[in-house]
Design goal:
This protein is of the alpha/beta class. It has eleven helices and twelve strands. The mean pLDDT is 95.
Length: 357
């Protein structure tokens, strides 16, 4: 029996709805396999927990998560709790505390989902964005002084270390090397950010020497938005800083049809701590409770988690089922359909079990 302990943190907004759907799908995969088992423990941390306890999770929250094989995360953010509290109180302490320095966001156009790009079909856009997830612009270094006075000042310092940049570059080059096209684009802004980003460029060039079979190029982040939109076929694997990749991956999700289908993994490549997997769509309070949240991103996220756990066959079975359901037109409203969360989930489970094949 292959037995995995999964920590589920549904958190805010549509998070509980899509994580519930994801757990159902994981259970269907386990039932289909027969030799696969998931022991899922749910934690009630998030904005509601904050309103009761004054913190997004207990002080020993990370310690509680350490024994798990992986973390399945919903979404964080609420209209009545400041964003910096929700982010720095839950998601970032896990990412940074567990040194999940590689944020990996695959993007492709799924069958049955229309891209807003003209003449762009499934297969034309198939990217993986690697986001440096531990430092850069989100290091949390800075402060404010003279609040409320005319001379009030706020600083936000981007931190780039040689070890941090080198390890994300090495991860991205290895990932590019494993993909059929062996193509990597390094995103930068070294024309204007002449210290940290220049070092970023220099280390990319150094690391590239160890990967002679990978073709790579360099792109300023502003020009990258143009290339992603006008020439998506020219891209494959992409690596960028914490801030740049955060923005570009949302653009990528939109170009693929919806953020509702976009997954991500926060990875500790060394396996010292559990990695965390989450859809990138956010808490979406405008549709919370309506039963129409798109669970596809959460299913794709589960496939990423399965790959990370070494369950490649189960991951492939799940993605085949998702693509089959999308191709059959069982889609939520955000991608032009009329199906509910439960209907999409039921269709994916049926495809996994072989009931509709």
């Amino acid at each position: 029996m292959r037995h995995y302990k999964i920590a589920a943190i549904p958190a805010d907004g549509i998070g509980p709805e899509v994580i519930d759907a994801g757990v159902e799908v994981l259970e269907a995969l386990a039932q289909r396999d027969g030799d696969l088992k998931f022991d899922i423990t749910t934690f009630d941390w998030g904005s509601d927990y904050y309103k009761k306890h004054g913190e997004m999770m207990p002080a020993n929250g990370p310690e509680q998560l350490k024994p798990f094989d992986a973390i399945y995360f919903g979404a964080v953010g609420a209209p009545d709790v400041p964003d910096h509290i929700t982010l720095w109180g839950l998601r970032l302490p896990i990412c940074q505390g567990f040194d999940q320095y590689a944020n990996v966001r695959p993007t492709k156009i799924l069958p049955g989902i229309k891209s807003p790009l003209r003449d762009c079909e499934p297969g034309d856009l198939d990217w993986v964005i690697v986001r440096e997830n531990s430092e850069g612009e989100y290091s949390g270094v800075g402060g404010r002084a003279h609040r409320g006075l005319p001379e009030e000042v706020a600083t936000e310092v981007a931190i780039f270390t040689r070890v941090g940049v080198e390890r994300i570059m090495r991860y991205a080059f290895k990932l590019a090397q494993s993909r059929p096209r062996k193509l990597l684009t390094v995103v930068t802004k070294s024309n204007a950010q002449r210290h940290g980003m220049v070092m970023w460029d220099e280390i990319a060039a150094e690391v590239s020497q160890d990967f002679p079979d990978v073709t790579w190029d360099k792109m300023l982040v502003d020009a990258m938005t143009v290339r992603m939109t006008l020439n998506p076929k020219s891209l494959d694997t992409i690596v960028a800083t914490n801030l740049h990749a955060d923005i570009l991956s949302d653009l990528a999700g939109a170009l693929a049809g919806s953020l509702g289908v976009a997954p991500t993994g926060n990875i500790d490549p060394e396996g010292r701590y559990p990695s965390m997997f989450e859809p990138i769509h956010g808490s979406a309070f405008d549709i919370t409770g309506k039963g129409i949240a798109n669970p596809v991103a959460t299913f794709w996220t589960a496939a990423q988690m399965l790959d990370y756990l070494g369950e490649g066959e189960a991951a492939a079975r799940l993605m085949t089922a998702v693509e089959q359901v999308c191709a059959d037109g069982v889609l939520t409203p955000d991608v032009g359909g009329t199906a509910t969360t439960k209907e999409v989930t039921a269709a994916v489970i049926a495809a996994i079990s072989g009931r509709n094949s």
